[in-house]
Amino acid sequence: MKPLNIFNKLIFFINSLFATALLLAYLLPYIPPSTFPFLSVLSLGMPILLVINIVFLIYWVIKLKKQFLLSTLVLLLGFNHILSLYRIEADKYEKQPEDIKLLSYNVRQFNRYNWIEGDTVTNQIIHFIENEKPDIVCLQEYHKRNDIKFNGFKYKYEVITNEGERFGQAIYTNYPVINKGSLEFEDSNNNAIYLDVLVNKDTIRVINIHLESLKIIPKVTEFQEEKREKLVSRMGNSFKKQEAQVKQILENLKDCSYKSVISGDMNNSAFSYVYRKLAQDHLDAFKEKGKSFGKTFDFDFIPLRIDAILVDEAMKVKEFKNFPEVKYSDHYPITCTFSL
């Protein structure tokens, strides 16, 4: 086999840099953001690092060069991460009477500031949710208005964390409510709220989370133009807050004897520390029954999945859907059908 020419040596050097970056990203779920907050930014770039290493692998295979082994080994080491990024389409499923369907959606204050042109966005969101016929609805960035009404739900629990802006979170359901509560994140407009609901003869805790926002503008070009030091510092601080918020959520679950479902906007990827902690003793509905990239946030061509539904390991996921065609917010709604 011929030695590499100068061009391919340069290509392999670049390949080595991206392979090292991917290896480093594999470690991030095990490193608290408070330890190295600036490194946590890499977790959002995991999809890109995986794809780039796949491209290098294909390049070396076409060239019939042994250098393909580098990206091959690195990708094999992170095979579970690939499953978090992409899933082959699952079989279609028809909801059964004993099943529970949960819908989670960051509604971006129902387009309060006209981020999306048109006066019908609020009604479109309401109609979409009603047409999906969920048993439980978890809304993040909920805006308290008199015209926000969902027909067909007996119970509503809303917590407004910013009284001036009148937004917060809400949970709607038809299941009898046994208990409810709000975790009240410190120094944050974000929050987690929960309901204990009675399903048949069983009680489950549904936690609607909205972790600290990263305040990312959903355009790659604008993201790149922001000063690097300022961007990394701001995001690092958000990741540290998320770590504390997840600890608070886990403390709440520790004191709960019921099976639980965690849903909402993590503002972080499935390759992050906060995701790994939240997913302990839970099944990621996307990894169980999702398809394609499961994209939940509008960030140009990058398939960011920062919203999730995590159900107790004692439950069974029957179906998971994301709706990238529903463009009424900067997030896309997700649903999970599961049984106890």
UniProtKB/TrEMBL annotation:
Pfam family of the protein (one): Exo_endo_phos
Keywords from the UniProt entry: DNA damage, DNA repair, Endonuclease, Exonuclease, Hydrolase, Magnesium, Membrane, Metal-binding, Nuclease, Transmembrane, Transmembrane helix
Stored Gene3D superfamilies: Endonuclease/exonuclease/phosphatase
Record InterPro entries: Endo/exonu/phosph_ase_sf (IPR036691), Endo/exonuclease/phosphatase (IPR005135), TDP2-like (IPR051547)
Segments forming domain Endonuclease/exonuclease/phosphatase: 103-331
Transmembrane segment boundaries: 12-32, 38-61, 68-86
GO BP terms, alphabetized: DNA repair
Record's keyword annotation contains Iron-sulfur: no
Obligatory cofactor(s): Mg(2+); Mn(2+)
GO molecular function: endonuclease activity; exonuclease activity; metal ion binding
Name of the protein in its database record: Metal-dependent hydrolase, endonuclease/exonuclease/phosphatase family
Organism: Mesonia phycicola
Phylogenetic placement of the source organism: Bacteria, Pseudomonadati, Bacteroidota, Flavobacteriia, Flavobacteriales
